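In response to a reviewer's request, we include the raw inputs and outputs for one of the modeled complexes. The two entities were modeled together in a single run.
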Amino acid sequence: MKAKGTVHKYGDNVDTDVIIPARYLNTADHKELASHCMEDIDIDFVKNVKEGDIMVAHENFGCGSSREHAPIAIKASGISCVIAATFARIFYRNAINIGLPIIECREASEKIEAGDEVEIDFESGVITNLTKGESYQGQAFPEFLINIINKGGLLNSLK
Amino acid sequence: MGMTMTQKILAAHAGLSEVKAGQLIMADLDFVLGNDITSPVAINEFHKAGFTDVFDKDKVTMVMDHFAPNKDIKAATQCKQCRDFCGEHSVTHFYDVGEMGIEHALLPEKGLVGPGDCIIGADSHTCTYGALGAFSTGVGSTDMCAGMAKGKAWFKVPSAIKFNIIGKLPKYSAAKDVILHIIGMIGVDGALYRSMEFSGEGLKNLTMEDRLCMANMAIEAGAKNGIFAVDEVTLEYVKGRFQREYKVFEADPDAEYDEVYDIDLSQIKPTVAFPHLPENAKTFDEIGDVKIDQSVIGSCTNGRIEDLRAAAEIFRGKHIAKGVRCIVIPATQAVYMQAMEEGLLKIFIEAGCAVSTPTCGPCLGGYMGILAKGERSIATTNRNFVGRMGHPESEVYLASPYVAAASAVTGKISQPSEVM
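The model returned the following structure tokens for the whole complex.
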């Protein structure tokens, strides 16, 4: 499985309250959630994001609330993968459970810039920056989690 | 090699004699929690996956607390979906308006969670029950759905940071100050993926409510869970309250910790976390004149009876400053009733505070105290992220009930000694 797209770049501690503000949590509708994704720190994100684009951030991405609406909003906005130096743990498991590809790579989070074209190979964990002609080794998932992902998410894996 | 307290609870629930940090396990759950925001997503997944029954109708709960009493039509629809689901599946512990309280105050109070339990909740502050010596952690709605259906969840066994508590808190310093101090020291990702274990001779000086407040904010340091060693204070609290059989787990004497910190309670001063991260903790020697528009006293962190007593101690015979709104939110119906019987509500109302029915409301910018552009609130809540209590250009300052009350009286961020 691969993902390829244009990068939207953010900093440290991007919390779930800015990914999807709680004032919009009175719905579980994926499209409606996506229409407010990131708006408190990047009002133009929703306007600019295209299907397949990639989100890159630094430390502790997705900290704060356990709202699954956060990875849902990111996925429904068209983002095909989130790369970060580290993820907050609830966001990490939520992303796996709903099938939003994520990958940890400190080097990629430091070197990739907004607007770069990036390709990710999930099997090898290799992230290729097509704009800069560089590649970075991300952390591939352990087998236990690959099993969940390959079965189409947590619920299917439990059947 | 010995195991930490968390590792021992996880091993027991995975049917293993031993687990190691980093190991992936499937564990049996004692209790599964959701609220009116996270449960609807779990219910949709439950139906989509074709599940027909909950694993145990006595071990699943839904608490209508975030946008309840219903704040709008959409919130009403979400609560109705939870109500219908719990009715259909005969879920014993469904808490609706009139019975409900803020989930993390309600469940310990009702005796639904206790020592040695393995608990997940679709709310990040589920780590609160670690105060009782349980392994308890926040998850998302899909995990909640799987937990409701199968009574199981997967975990990566965490390593731990140990906090050795010594001494006794000075007057007007609170458990909130301790946890803000710790988060300020280690940062919002200082305990990422790890446990925060609290033990030591100073534990005896922390009440159960103090511990609930501290464990509640373990997530604000990125921790998987916060957990307190079980002692007489714990056993006294669960006696006659906890409805199942409990089991006491202790860390092995040779358990390995990534780091060990000594926390001397006698050195803890009133502390305020400045916008926009809980790690921006400052004591009053670093705080100048910061005017406030609002003070919120309540939440799963600080809405219990001891918190209201602390606020009332400051407010007694005083009035809040002109131009300040102060909203007091007892966390549960029992706390509300107790506050009424002790005369605390009268003190709040005479001081010019609004007193609300239990709700998470303003803490997450839902309703009941939303901030306008440029406004500032001091709050006994747990997060001060951008836009957390309203407009993206508003500000939230986190503090104890003493500080939130003192600040409401002066109209600027103030320590209790300024008004007492």
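As requested, we also summarize the result in words. The beta strands of chain A are 2-9, 54-57, 81-84, 102-104, 117-121, 126-129, 134-137. The longest strand of chain A covers residues 2-9.
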